């Protein structure tokens, strides 16, 4: 057991998963991820680069990944906004990579040292155009480690960018952590092509919707474009081709959604009042639900470890017997509450508990709405 | 001043601790040392902090929870032990003394406060006597651990040794100074 900070656990998890390239621009409250990588990566034969800004950071990550490295970056608020364009490139070009977004209070520079959970929709829709993405959300230092490993595994398996959506509290918090031994957690590497170089098509998918990815510098020379492209990677404006591509980048996640969507249940199965929570707010929710049970109300918590794709089926199942569903989150609009309402329908009693002043939610805030 | 006991007897299993002062006083490092000590004793810990955008100055708060059980909510809700190193920190946390928290504070910059739960010591003055102003927080840590038993002193010394191998002797001396403050206060009380 060691005392480990959330950001340090994210960096350690990335290295455990095989990441050997980090390019970033330090920003509170994510800077310790960069700090840790700057010390450890060079020692492991990896590469750490401090870039001139976040636009360049994600560009370098995409390039490194196409050259065969497991690559990632970490940022927050304004930096995450700057990364959107090239993150869209990674979606279009199907480049495996991991972006850590440690949410802080906005908009803009906002409250730079204070937490928030207001990037949920930006993570999903921050880029223009049709697209799909995976996002995971840790609630403890242990999950900072494990979900980062999982983020790389998903990214490599489905050839897609994955966002690890943390928040200032979980990222700066320290807890006792037993770092898993080598081999204890599964590590997945991207599918490599087996066809001869002359036959390699970088966007020709197998039955699982995912195309094997060669590395730049290997004998399989290939072209990657942010413009709409065909299986061979060159620009293609044919409507039928465009439809196939857009359909596939969605379908490759949809057809594996049961593996991707991870939730945890804390007494959610028999709950009369179900709390749907994610990130650091899970902990206040669990404390509130436990207190409610001691006062005679059957409350439970469904934790969304995967934010995107959204846990439609899991929420429907957990909420089946609940008379009320509560969604506590550190944002004004109820970004996840809106999704829960979409899943359960307009007639269901769904209540948000929202904080948007840089202050966390406390068990008493949630308990009040459970007992109301 | 006896090591804390919870109702029903037996050693207390959960401690909620607040270290409050000014940015740059080493409050977060001190909280980490306490956590490292508790981990050595096989207990669970969570450490959080709150601070503004200045690296030096401004109210800075480090919190930790030590428990033999899983720690679900990460923040301190009912502090048992508080360290207030500045007037601003004292203002924020003094009220918890009435609810049973023991408030350790620095008499170098603050006037003494009546009440059994206010425990004032001249941490900064003593650190100045050592010519190491930044040792005040460690002196306080020594006093708090000696007084409350939230971790064992040998665990804390071991954590200090591992965290600051080169500066360990000076830091352990500071802890000892804090421990001595409590011992002499106890003697005064007995006399």
What does it look like?
The complex is a heterodimer of chains A (372) and B (191). With 372 residues, chain A is of the alpha/beta class. Chain A folds into 2 domains: 2-177, 3-Layer(aba) Sandwich (Rossmann fold); 264-371, Rossmann fold. Chain A contains 13 helices and 15 strands. Chain A has helices spanning 6-16, 31-43, 54-66, 77-92, 120-125, 141-158, 168-172, 239-254, 257-260, 281-294, 312-319, 335-344, 363-371, and strands at residues 2-5, 21-24, 47-50, 71-75, 97-105, 111-115, 134-136, 161-167, 174-177, 263-266, 273-277, 299-304, 306-308, 324-329, 350-354. In chain A, strand 4 (71-75), helix 4 and strand 5 form a beta-alpha-beta unit. In chain A, helix 1 (6-16) runs parallel beside helix 6 (141-158), helix 10 packs across helix 13 and helix 11 (312-319) crosses helix 12 (335-344). Chain A is globular. The mean pLDDT of chain A is 97. The two termini of chain B are 14 Å apart. The radius of gyration of chain B is 15 Å and the shape is globular. Residues 1-7 of chain B have low confidence and may be disordered. In chain B, helix 3 packs across helix 4 (136-148) and helix 4 packs across helix 6. Chain B has one domain: Pyruvate-ferredoxin Oxidoreductase, domain 3 (3-Layer(aba) Sandwich), CATH 3.40.920. Chain B is 39% helix and 19% strand. A 6-stranded mixed beta sheet of chain B has the order 2-3-1-4-5-6. Chains A and B meet through strand 9 and helix 10 of A and helix 1 and strand 2 of B.
């Amino acid at each position: 057991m060691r005392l480990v900070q959330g950001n340090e656990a994210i960096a350690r998890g990335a290295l455990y998963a095989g990441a050997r390239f980090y390019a970033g621009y330090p920003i509170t409250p994510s800077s310790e991820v960069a700090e840790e990588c700057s010390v450890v990566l060079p020692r492991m034969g990896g590469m750490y680069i401090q870039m001139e800004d976040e636009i360049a950071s994600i560009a370098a990550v995409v390039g490194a990944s196409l050259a065969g490295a497991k690559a990632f970056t970490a940022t927050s608020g304004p930096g995450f906004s700057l990364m959107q364009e090239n993150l869209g490139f990674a979606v279009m070009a199907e480049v495996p990579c991991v972006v850590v977004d440690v949410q802080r209070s906005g908009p803009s520079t906002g409250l730079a040292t204070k937490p928030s959970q207001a990037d949920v929709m930006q993570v999903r829709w921050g880029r223009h155009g049709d697209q799909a993405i995976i996002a995971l959300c840790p609630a403890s230092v242990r999950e900072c480690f494990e979900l980062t490993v999982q983020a790389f595994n998903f990214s490599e398996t489905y050839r897609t960018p994955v966002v690890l959506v943390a928040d200032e509290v979980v990222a700066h918090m320290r807890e006792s952590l037993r770092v898993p031994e080598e081999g204890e957690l599964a590590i997945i590497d991207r599918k490599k092509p087996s066809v001869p170089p002359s036959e390699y098509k970088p966007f020709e998918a197998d039955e699982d919707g995912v195309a094997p990815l060669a590395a730049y510098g290997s004998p399989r020379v290939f072209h990657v474009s942010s413009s709409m492209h065909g299986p061979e990677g060159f620009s293609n404006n044919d409507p039928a081709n465009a439809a196939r591509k857009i359909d596939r980048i969605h379908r490759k996640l949809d057809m594996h959604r049961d593996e991707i969507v991870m939730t945890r249940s804390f007494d959610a199965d028999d709950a009369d009042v179900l709390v749907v929570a994610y990130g650091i707010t899970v902990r206040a929710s669990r404390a509130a639900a436990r207190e409610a049970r001691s006062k005679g109300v059957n409350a439970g918590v469904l934790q969304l470890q995967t934010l995107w794709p959204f846990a439609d089926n899991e929420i429907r199942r957990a909420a089946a017997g609940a008379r009320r569903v509560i969604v506590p989150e550190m944002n004004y609009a109820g970004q996840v509450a809106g999704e829960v309402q979409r899943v359960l329908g307009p007639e269901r009693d769904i209540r948000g508990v929202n904080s948007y002043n840089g202050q966390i939610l406390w068990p008493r805030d949630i308990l009040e709405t459970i007992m109301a | 001043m006896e090591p804390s006991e919870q109702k029903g007897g037996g050693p207390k299993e959960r401690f909620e601790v607040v270290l409050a002062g000014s940015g740059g006083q080493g409050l977060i490092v001190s909280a980490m040392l306490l956590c490292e000590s508790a981990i050595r004793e096989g207990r669970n810990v969570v450490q959080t902090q709150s601070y503004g955008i200045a690296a030096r100055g401004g109210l800075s708060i480090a919190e930790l929870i030590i428990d033999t059980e899983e720690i679900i909510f990460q923040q301190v809700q009912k502090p048992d032990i508080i360290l207030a190193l500045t007037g601003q920190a004292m203002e924020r946390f003094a009220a918890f003394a009435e609810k049973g928290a023991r408030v350790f504070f620095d008499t170098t910059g603050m006037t003494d406060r009546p009440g059994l739960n206010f425990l004032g010591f001249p941490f900064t003055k003593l650190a100045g006597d050592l010519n190491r102003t930044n040792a005040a927080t460690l002196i306080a840590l020594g006093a708090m651990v000696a007084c409350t038993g939230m971790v064992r002193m040998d665990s804390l010394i071991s954590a200090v040794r591992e965290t600051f191998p080169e500066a360990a002797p000076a830091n352990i001396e500071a802890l000892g100074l804090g421990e001595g403050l409590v011992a002499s206060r106890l003697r005064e009380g007995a006399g």
